Amino acid sequence: MGWGITGTMLSGMLVWGGVGWLLDRWLETRVFTLVGVLLGLGVAIYLVVVKYGAVEPPAGGRPTSTTRGGQRSRPPEYRKTQKGRR
């Protein structure tokens, strides 16, 4: 997991920093490399949070599930739709 996060962060900064560097060379400016690196870092952080999840909640907090055993509650049999009563 650690190498995946590191690789995602580095590759995001390198790829978008490289795009910014190419734009700087093409437009003869000096600002797009920094913008590209920062954009790559932001996108990489977003991808890491989406892929690996957020930080675990502290112990002793409120439970996330309101049903017993962590299972989803299902409606009783008499509540089936017409499509289910064939």
Task: Describe the fold and architecture.
This is Putative F0F1-ATPase subunit Ca2+/Mg2+ transporter. The chain crosses the membrane at residues 6-24, 31-49. InterPro entries: ATPase_put. Residues 55-86 are annotated as: Disordered. The protein has helices spanning 2-27, 32-52. The chain is mainly α. The protein has a domain at 12-53. It starts with a helix and ends in a 34-residue tail after the last helix.
Tag the structure with descriptive keywords.
single chain; 86 residues; mainly alpha; 0% strand
In short:
The protein has helices spanning 2-27, 32-52. It has 86 residues and is an all-alpha fold. It starts with a helix and ends in a 34-residue tail after the last helix.
The backbone outline, from C-alpha atoms, is elongated
Oligomer: single chain
Averaged pLDDT? 81
Order of helices and strands: HH
Helical region count?
A: 2
SSE diagram, text form:
Blueprint: H1 2-27, H2 32-52
Helix pairs in contact: 1-2
